[in-house]
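Course assignment 3, question 2. Fill in each field.
Student: A.L.
Task: Predict the tertiary structure for the chain below.
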Amino acid sequence: MSALPPCPACKSTYTYESDYLLVCPECGHEWNAEETAVESSDVLVVKDSNGNILKDGDAVVVVKDLPVKGYSKSIKAGTKIKNIRLVEGDHNVDCKVEGFGAMALKSEFLKKA
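Answer field:
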């Protein structure tokens, strides 16, 4: 059995063959095995608390109360945040939270809405 290459989009190792394409069951990405050198490997993949892949412009919901440094109140669980932007780093989601302003949040505390 030959080892299949990992998914170029999310780096999952659970890829499988379907006709002439390779398929990733985690993110649904399909690609041609011969054209893997053409695709970019610098794709930023950010997953939410449930493992769903987030994209720029998505809407998310906060899954637990998040204390905010410098504020007396926290961002409550269930707060919906629209139009997120993905960035590199530890806090990989930039967004505007109503009542707080611009924030950088960790994707592990968010779920896709």
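Instructor remarks: The first strand starts at residue 16 and ends at 18. The mean pLDDT is 88.
Grade: pending
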